[in-house]
Amino acid sequence: MRVLESRTLRPSAGRTCPAPPGHSMAARLTTYVVVGIVAATLIAGLIVGAQRDDNDGPVDLIVFNGKVYTADASGSMAEAVAVRGNQILRVGSNREINRLRRPQTVVVDAQGAAVLPGFNDPSTRFIDGGLALSGVDLADATTVEEIQARVRMWAESNPDHEWIVGHGWTPAALATNPTRQLIDAAATDRPVCLLSSDGRMAWLNTKALQRTAITPRTAPPADGVIVKDARTGAPTGVLKGTAVALITNVIPRPSRDERARGLRDAIEEAHRNGVTSIRDTIERADDFILYDTVREAGDLGVRVYASIEAGTESEAETFKQLQSLSDRYPDDPLFKMGGARIPIDGPVESFDAALLQPYDARPDHAGRPRIDADTLNRFVRLLDARGWQVTLDASGDRAVHMALDALEHAGRSNKAPDRGRRHLIEGVALVDAADVARFGRLAAIATIEPYGAIPTTERLEMWTRAVGAERASRAWPAGSIVSARAQLAFTTDWPASPLNPLVAMQAGVTRATADGLPEGGWSSSERVSLKRAINAFTSVPAFASFDEQRKGSLKKGMLADLVVLSTDIFDAPNVDLAGTSVATTIFDGKIVYQRNAKSTN
After folding, report:
1. Helix intervals (H) in 475-529
2. Eight-class DSSP state of 72
3. What backbone phi and psi angles, to 5 degrees, belong to 259?
4. What is the number of other CB atoms lying within 10 angstroms of the CB of residue 325?
């Protein structure tokens, strides 16, 4: 330290001696060098310590030899992932991760295929979806003959069931109008109720219609339709909108044990499709208890963000219920309360979407919102003031406009909560061009079901007939939402459509049917990139549920929820997500589903 000691020279009496030329600069350089050495030593020590922690502790599971998409802010890629307990230990190269392997480590060889964060579906009726799995599956039935055959086959396989209940048919896919006589041809010995894919239509046979006590003189409920024969006035067996409740209220409710089995079946279906997180809109208080019971037993194999459907009839009761549920089910990695959902309209296919201009197919009809604008604004403002997250279910462009107005009104009226606002508009199908930019400006998260997860030529043609070519070209505006710098989430809307995020992502990326029609895609400007589509089923839903610090991306410290696919979706010249399958699903650090991937100890 000789140089440091020589920095100050002994002064002569009465005056200060200047330092020798160049001396100050040399001293400063020496100081910088010493500080740099010390800092480098400390950093090296921290790195070695961190590596020692990784190397010395147990590594329970490794996924290697993959195309790992982390879904982080930079969209980075890697080759392998190491897991300790239920958290990700490290993401890196095959060489880095394989060094951590221990005799007890479970190893999954991805065989060059894509590895992604576990999928998160932000709009489901999860338990109802599990229950529907045991009924008649009509999701991809496109003819009356096929529907009849499935009803007949299910009836023969389940002779002891009092009711035959099916789900998933699409009105636009049928070449003829549904009638009770068509279902009578398949089953007359017991009542049959077939719910449409969106749940807004019920198709009954004669025996089921008799159970409702509906006659030619029966008036429909508000916002409901009892379809009747134009010549005779007799009910045809089709109920729409709120009139669906006339039959669902008659069908025996599933018991608690049946709903518990439905939840178990739903979890298995989720694992088969790589889904590790969901958002469920719960209508029955018992389902909160069911979820909690399954969680306490250690059997809840998905992470659940639960919302309630809120009505404006009793605001005080809604606020009391929200507070009670939030207190009982606070923030938790597995199950927590997630605010209120408010339905504004229905789908375009059944002419229930609220539009700014009348339907082309029905010039005297523009759809009617289920709630008026003033009531909606007030209700959202009060919910927002109490810090609740609000989800607005809006399909048509008028309903979306109302939803954005309500969020803007709340933002003007209330101070933002400490955790910020993350309100959602889900079911977005049609947006007026003037409203697109408002999504970004209001930080509203848009949830879109791209082409109803399973696009068909018939559905695209139905949209064109219903709202005209210009408005149809703006349907499901995913690309526009992204361009507005808004957060975009995708959903399968299960059980309205199959719980298959890969098929939904294929629709969002290609804007085409499974057969590649129309050629070049429908409104190709509304396509999104592959990584953006993956984010819409991973990191964005995690952000929407205030969970981005624990899930939705693959990095150190995040919950170990991963999905290994059957192929490398990033290197294919033409994206074929619909033809890709899930090879392995990992939930909470454990393999919960495995099809073809190899795992060893």
Report:
1. 478-483, 501-510
2. S
3. -70, -35
4. 20
CA dihedral 385, 389, 393, 395 (to 10 degrees): 90
Phi, psi of 137 (to 5 degrees): -85, 115
Phi first, then psi: what are they for 275, rounded to 5°? -90, 125
Q: State yes or no: pLDDT of 133 exceeds 80.
A: yes
Any bridge partners for residue 238, and if so which? 203
Sort strands 598-600 and 106-109 into parallel, antiparallel or unpaired: antiparallel
pLDDT in tens, 471-513: 998 899 999 999 999 999 999 999 888 899 999 999 999 988 7
Tell the residue number behind the tokens 């107005």, with chain if given: 405
CA–CA separation, 148 and 413 (whole Å)? 54
Q: How many CB atoms within 10 Å of residue 189? A: 10
The pLDDT-based confidence of 149 (bands split at 50, 70, 90) is very high
Please state which of the ranges 198-202, 297-301, 433-437 shows the lowest mean pLDDT. Answer: 198-202
- In which element (H, E) is residue 184 found? helix 180-184
d(CA 342, CA 393): 6
What sign results for the dihedral spanned by CA atoms 409, 412, 416, 421?
Answer: positive
Q: pLDDT tens for residues 565-591?
A: 999 999 877 788 988 999 999 999 999
DSSP 559: B
C-alpha span between 541 and 123 (Å, rounded): 10
Could you tell me if 360 and 466 are in contact, meaning their C-beta atoms sit under 8 angstroms apart? Answer: yes
**Beta strand ranges found along 180-330 (DSSP E):** 192-196, 201-204, 224-228, 235-241, 275-282, 303-309
CA dist list (Å): 175 to 178, 515, 601: 9, 20, 55
Q: Round to whole Å and give the CA distance between 91 and 56.
A: 17
Report CA 226 to chain centroid distance, whole Å. Answer: 33
Three-class SS state of 325: helix
Average pLDDT of the residues in 242-246? 91
CB atoms within 10 A of CB 428: 29
Alpha carbon 485 to its chain's center = 19
pLDDT at position 6, please?
30
